[in-house]
Design a protein that fits this description.
By secondary structure, this protein is an all-alpha fold. It has a domain at about 45-80. Helix content is about 65%, strand content about 0%.
Length: about 80
């Protein structure tokens, strides 16, 4: 795991983070890591790109014989 050092933080901010961590039963490091994790969100999904990728996958698998998963699972259970 990586580490991060943040310099020049206001003392009142550090005190507030320490208090928040204490109230939540976490260490200061855990509290700050959680705040950072919550603040970083994955980029929104581009629906047009997603549908284009789905269409490309369908084109790659066109004409192939497929078996529903429940049939495969049933066959696997019967083999035991």
């Amino acid at each position: 795991m990586g580490s991060l050092m943040i310099r020049n933080l206001d003392d009142s901010l550090i005190k507030g983070l320490e208090d928040q961590a204490l109230r939540s039963g976490r260490t200061l490091d855990q509290e700050v890591a959680l705040i950072l994790k919550d603040g970083v969100r994955p980029p929104p999904v581009d629906r047009a790109e997603l549908f284009a990728r789905m269409d490309a996958f369908r084109a790659l698998t066109a004409g192939r014989c497929t078996v529903p998963s429940e049939v495969l699972l049933r066959e696997m259970r019967d083999e035991r």
